[in-house]
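Progress against Task 2.4 (sequence-to-structure conversion) is shown through the following example record, which the project officer requested during the mid-term review.
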Amino acid sequence: MLVLLLGSGGREHALARALRLDPTVTALHCAPGNAGTSAVAENHVLDPTDPIAVVELARRIRPDLVVIGPEAVLIAGVADALRQAGIPCFGPDAAAARIEGSKAFAKEIMAAAGVPTAAARVCESEDEVNEALDLFGPPYVVKDDGLAAGKGVIVTGDRSAAAAHARACGRVVIEEYLDGPEVSLFALSDGTHTVPLLPAQDYKRAYDNDEGPNTGGMGAYTPLPWAPADLVPEVMATVVQPVIDELRARRTPYVGVLYAGLALTAGGVRVVEFNARFGDPETQVVLDRLATPLGRLLQACAIGGLPGDLSLEWRPGAAVTVVVAAENYPAKPVTGDVIAGIKEAEEVPGAYVLHAGTAMSDGLLVSAGGRVLNVVGTGPDLGAARATAYRAVEKIRMRGMQCRTDIAAKAAVLPG
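Structure tokens generated for the chain above:
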């Protein structure tokens, strides 16, 4: 099977690595890819949000499957264009991808499907914003209605900051605050049937102890020793399958991975958000544990052949990923700094490095984005996996690099 993977971040390097472990994947191409994917795939210079360019490349290399990584590519209608050209594609059409592209649309779908979520108001004027802030009170939760690369949400006790964020965004969703630990659950779908992956937890705030600005994610881990034993079947029954059924009923079948961001509140599971693609950096740890060949799974979704009773196989143990970010991330990250120490990091037993924002410049590996690397540690339990990840992080050298030091710290001391 020849696979074309669209995207250039840490999620795409994790997908590329997992696809390469599938014996049925005989060739892998990435567009545009990054310095890490170039080691396992043939990279192509391409704007993946350009449907015409993507279809032209696909017709030239003739993939058996196209896998779409980033949300912007989905919203741009690239999956639609590929399917119209008769090319199997893993990723929802633009209409179904609105579940991430519009927070208001996601709320509409959840209401129609009876999915538990926070009460919310869609606001387009200053008066509507003020009424919603009055209604829900602090902590204020204000979400940009459109795509914002994981950074369009503010949760704050400062009303003026909440109002300012709403003004900067334009159309926003303001909702009640959901208290409780957050969990990410991915589910694969062929438009009818679904199968869950392992739940994971990520860390959105930039600094230790969940302080600082919101980011795209600074680290993640799986499994979750503290999560209820029935969490996954409950979420599949009350959240994922109802949403897939609702979208199919609207004649916009959802083919791809549905990411459910969940809060485990005192009143039960509530949906915080949906994404229409693999989450980053949770993908890095979830796919590390997956033993079932990934390529065949994604192809089954793309062609409508996902078995309804499929049970996936998982490697025992745990995985932890720590994001190495550039100086001044997430505001205006500094790029162009030389990166060293990756070889030494991967010499740590049980560790490996996935590239996110990297590029080659004059023969040197340099930073090319805010989140630069994902350092993955594995082990028989979370404590061992976490220790491995941070031993590997210590080998990385980059001017101004920053990372959190508390990824999986609390979970690692809990009984498995």
